[in-house]
Amino acid sequence: DWNDHVYSSVDGINWVDMGTPIKDMVPNSILYGALVEVFNDKIYIVSGSGAGDVYSFDGTDWAVVTRNAEFNGMGNHNGTGGCVFDNKLWLIGGENNEVWYTENGHEWKAATLNAEFTIAVQHNVEVLDGKMYIIGNYNSLNTLWYSSDGIEWVRGSVITPDAFDCSANTL
């Protein structure tokens, strides 16, 4: 089944199966609501189910980076978001308002356990101009929050359909 594998492409047209099926290494319960990011030249999967497990893929093999990471048991990270920012991998929200980061994949530190943003689930996290942005979430699609350090979060402008002038095909 194609859902069990990792594929890569150099042109977006031709895809190559990278080998060992993901299900042979990473349990489905870990994948549900997980964070998947490229960090330090590997693909990282950070458990979204509260197990605190972190896996990496180097293009050939899967490896357990850590089990029971420091964020384990602190809150459910299902539907979490994250990004790579300031040479760190960030785990942000996921049925809570916690913010965690790692510099190596093994050791996780809490930036804050009670960020100003409302509980963020199934949200996007993007990086732009030295800030991390939380854009929308399952409970509130038009929210925008940003931070330059992961500790202090500022609410940005509310995103509304009126913010875009689509009548002239311009933004």
Brief summary:
This protein has 1 helix and 14 strands. The C terminus is likely disordered.
Beta-strand portion reads 25-35%
Strand order of the largest sheet: 3-4-5-6
User: What's the main sheet like?
Assistant: 4 strands, antiparallel
The whole-number mean of residue pLDDT values reads: 80
> What letter string, H or E per element, gives the SSE order?
EEHEEEEEEEEEEEE
Helix percent band:
under 10%
**Which regions are unreliable across 5 or more consecutive residues at pLDDT < 50?**
164-171
Cα end-to-end separation: 41 Å
Structural class: mainly beta
Q: How would the blueprint of this fold be written?
A:
Layout: E1 7-8, E2 16-17, H1 28-31, E3 35-39, E4 42-46, E5 54-57, E6 62-66, E7 81-85, E8 88-92, E9 99-102, E10 108-112, E11 124-128, E12 131-135, E13 144-147, E14 154-155
Antiparallel strand pairs: 1-2, 3-4, 4-5, 5-6, 7-8, 8-9, 9-10, 11-12, 12-13, 13-14
Provide a descriptive summary of the structure in words.
The structure is a single chain. With 171 residues, the protein is mainly β. It has 1 helix and 14 strands; from the N terminus they run ββαββββββββββββ. The strands form 4 sheets. Strands 3-4-5-6 form a 4-stranded antiparallel sheet, with no helix packed on it. A 4-stranded antiparallel sheet has the order 7-8-9-10, with no helix packed on it. Strands 11-12-13-14 form a 4-stranded antiparallel sheet, with no helix packed on it. The radius of gyration is 17 Å and the shape is globular. It starts with 6 loop residues before the first strand and ends in a 16-residue tail after the last strand. The model is unreliable at 164-171 (pLDDT under 50).
